[in-house]
Amino acid sequence: MSENKSTQIQLVRRPAGMPVAEDFRTVTVELPDLGENQVRVRNEFISVDPYMRGRMNDSKSYIPPFELGETMQGSAVGRVIESTSPEFSEGDLVTHFLGWRDIAQADAQAFTQAQELGDVASSVYLGALGLTGMTAYMGLMKVAELKEGDNVFISGAAGAVGSMVGQIAKLKGAREIIGSAGGSEKTALLTQRFGFTQGIDYKAAPILTQLEEAAPNGIDVYFDNVGGDHLEAALNSFNRYGRAALCGAISVYNEKDPNSIPGPRFMTNIVTRSLSMKGFVLQDYLQFAQEFREEIAPHFISGEITYDETVVEGLHNALDAFFGLFSGKNTGKMVVEI
Amino acid sequence: MSENKSTQIQLVRRPAGMPVAEDFRTVTVELPDLGENQVRVRNEFISVDPYMRGRMNDSKSYIPPFELGETMQGSAVGRVIESTSPEFSEGDLVTHFLGWRDIAQADAQAFTQAQELGDVASSVYLGALGLTGMTAYMGLMKVAELKEGDNVFISGAAGAVGSMVGQIAKLKGAREIIGSAGGSEKTALLTQRFGFTQGIDYKAAPILTQLEEAAPNGIDVYFDNVGGDHLEAALNSFNRYGRAALCGAISVYNEKDPNSIPGPRFMTNIVTRSLSMKGFVLQDYLQFAQEFREEIAPHFISGEITYDETVVEGLHNALDAFFGLFSGKNTGKMVVEI
Questions:
Q1: Model ipTM?
Q2: Distance between CA A253 and CA B16 in Å, rounded?
Q3: What is the DSSP pairing of strand A276-279 with strand B276-279?
Q4: Closest Cα partner for B309 from B118, B166, B127, B155?
Q5: Same domain, A26 and A120
Q6: Which residue range is the domain that position A170 belongs to?
Q7: Which range has the worst mean pLDDT, A51-65, A186-200, B235-249?
Q8: Are residues A62 and A33 in the same domain?
Q9: How far away is chain A from the Cα of B227, in angstroms, using its nearest Cα?
Q10: Distance from CA of A258 to the nearest CA of B (A)
Q11: Which of A70, A238, B57, B94 has the least CB density, counted as fewest CB within 10 Å?
């Protein structure tokens, strides 16, 4: 690839339901020479995430919608190939949010230095040591306020965030750590690889009854990546003072009209059991980012925390990688290697 | 009435759906002479409350279900007519929780001294200055964490709790105070009597669209007495960081199978707008009871806080009073005068 051209994927149409290739276009642009205090980076990995689907809608949300005709924003990690900034030198590993492109060029402030991690691929900065791990930590510890001895239920547990939630729960002394995943293979990973006490294959039988059986003593904390029937199952199984951290609702992201869908049953349990249910976004908890890194990085480097990645090769396959998120093609964090 | 007999209403069958007279019986019992440190009280008023319907079911809840064959428990206020306790003298005004009976007799510790309030009827201790007012205060200030300038929506706003919520919100500097009530008469009370900025008659048109129109700038706090379509309307109109305090769900109390009812639409807004939704019961906030009395009593005594009562005469009409709660026959706190 030429280093003064940048190939980028842009959103050109707001998807109706499931996104399709025609909602995007790939462009290659000539890069101007670096201006003052600018940096040019060759990306090693870019991130594709379920939340991006939400930003494709033109609707009220916590972050503004993606603009049509603009390059898809998102986390990425790469190496500096040219710099006019005193803060960055050629070869530096950096993270940024400039998204789906092979070469990123911008003012120095758009980039953050990242520590070299030896044999660990830099893609970890898009996941376990990046926004994914931080999301898991904030939701579990700051939103749901996990306490030692709590029984925890995590939906989408084999996913990037979910598998981190389970491992952090274990480090923090949770008793039962029950995860749900789709299919026997992913479900097996929960106990065999990520240290969950129980795994539920939600495709095998209704999650409601499976969770009842898995948690005869009820659950105290629920980390929700899925919504819908999983949230309903949690509401049914909650003990008094149960706390739900709502991180995502992948079950409805691709509905053409999510607001037409009835909510879960068992809503009256919120009153009768004094439950709390909180939606959150990472950006409101960034004051704990340093705490997260200090508490979690050692366990990661020591290998106590493991993570799965699904690596798709090549920017030209980024769309397939993104689409694959919604049909469960990834195990763990989905990244695209450039 | 004889003062050594006590007439009492007991639950004898768990209601299926709406309670009926056959679920109860009235008994008159001979009272034994007072034992050591006991008190006999002639009730002036007893309380009938929607939450009592929940306790009639044999289900997991924050307080144990009523026992069959036992006298209905609940708040009451009366005067001491006989005492072997040094703490109580004949004529003292006391509150207690011994419920639906004309004469209450028990150990002294079952009774609490109440301040005389001059011309104000003692029934106020069952409402505005009692559990009702405290519930309003705790939900609004401690659960939903009202801040000055917030826009507030209150369902069941002409009710005992709802009308207190609105008035406390005003004292605390809320901007828009929007209440819903059933029918034009009750709705008019909200603005004319209780100082709400807007009243919505939910029987006139769907609450969803009416709230959208009443709150073009959205709502920040929702105090829920109703559940169902009202909760859905709140979810739709919430601003980012909106907080719901869920106090009751009278819309479903009499459903034979409340858990079969789908929840509200717009649940995904909990994630996309970082909403919080908390059920609560007063007993978890009693540490703020003193704060409540200190902050609110002066406004009540000065007449700044007003309240409505529906007084039904006679213990023999207590069941009709209770049933009337579910068909909206009360305006404000429903009490039975003995």
A1: 0.77
A2: 39
A3: antiparallel
A4: B127
A5: yes
A6: 131-284
A7: A51-65
A8: yes
A9: 8
A10: 7
A11: A70
